Amino acid sequence: MKSFGDIMKWRKEQKASGVEPMRPTLMGKPKPSAAELRAAFPLAPVDWGALAAPPSDAIQAVWVGHATVLVQMGGATFLTDPVFSERCSPTQLYGPKRVAPPALTAADPLLTRLDFVLLSHNHYDHLDTDSVRALNKRFGQALTWYVPLGVGRWFASEGVKSVREMDWWESAEHPLQGGGSVTVTMTPAQHWSARGILDRFQTLWGGFVVTAPAPPPAPSNLTTSSSSGPSPTSPASAPASSTPSPPDASAGPATPAAPAAAGPKGGAEPLRFYFVGDTGYGPFFPEIGKRLGPFDLAAIPIGAYEPRWFMKPQHVNAEEGLQIAQEVGARVSIGIHTATWVLTDEPLDEPPARLEAAVRAAGLPPTSFVTLQHGAMAVVRGGELVNAPPTLPVEASEKLPAAAAAPSKAKAEAASGTAVVANC
């Protein structure tokens, strides 16, 4: 756990280097104008027509901003970590302010259906009071909230009744309107929790996997050519490793997650989506891939990582995000937890640029891991990105720090040794 002295050390470093907390910067532009920020983080129009008629054999995912993603798969529509407010803070009077508006909100009239929400943990950039109230007012008990152990008490205080607390590796079947179901499984992450100064580590944190039954085969004249084997971002083999134990929290016995079901021989496979949550790199990612993968689509954090001596145990950078994608067997990934609020010291446009450089250095297809524009939609079918969504503009790699422009295998291996939960 980082100490108060560590926080003061960070603030001293910021002052010495001229970093102003919560002030947006861009690579090569320490004080960008409002127009430059809009150009760096454009807002794509949400494709409501596509959302109104989701395909049965694909996953659609709209990046709303930060860790908020609207996902459709297997007949289900759900959100991850919904935050629609201007600031991620206990109050809207101060705190980090958005550089780009949310692509949609709970008030959007075309958001007519929402089956459930996945909540990774209780930090303010992931659990926002006003957003929860707005969604609860609109959808009520028809909307189920899947939350980590201990977070249910907060929801009860807000009058939210349809809440399911979950432990790591616990699974739940979520019934869908019109029949059928999807499976929600909570997964480990390396992070921490708090809403104030006296409740640190009192609730759990984690990620989630959603698995939908294998879609019906498409008519032969509409079938999209794709590979059902491991993608270029999947390792040839993923060794299992031990998983850190969650903090002690009172709850009923967890239901172990069953191995991911395989589709008929030579036929379609289940659709699998992985929301990594907020995390540092840990040794449990290969095990997640072994138990629940491979994944058609993963939403992986890539931002809020500097200074590394402070943030590394709790926030991955872009290179570590790519490492996670490889270890869990993510066929397509989208970068999240970036380009929305100033939470740490790196320029806001650096994470997407570092990600693109890392993907290129690894010799992977550029479509295997992308950072969408706010509001853009990724459509993944058969483990392939089948549309061409608008992505965030990326600066030339020569503007990147030298270590980021040429990530090394040694650094990736060193990152895998980090398994200490920190506080900040």
TrEMBL record:
Gene Ontology cellular component terms for the protein in this record: cytoplasm
Top-level taxonomic group: Eukaryota
Residue stretches of biased makeup (Low complexity): 220-263
Domain called Metallo-beta-lactamase: residue spans: 78-212, 272-337
Ranges for region Disordered: 215-264
Gene3D superfamilies assigned: Ribonuclease Z/Hydroxyacylglutathione hydrolase-like
PANTHER family: N-ACYL-PHOSPHATIDYLETHANOLAMINE-HYDROLYZING PHOSPHOLIPASE D (PTHR15032)
The protein's name in its UniProt record: Metallo-beta-lactamase domain-containing protein
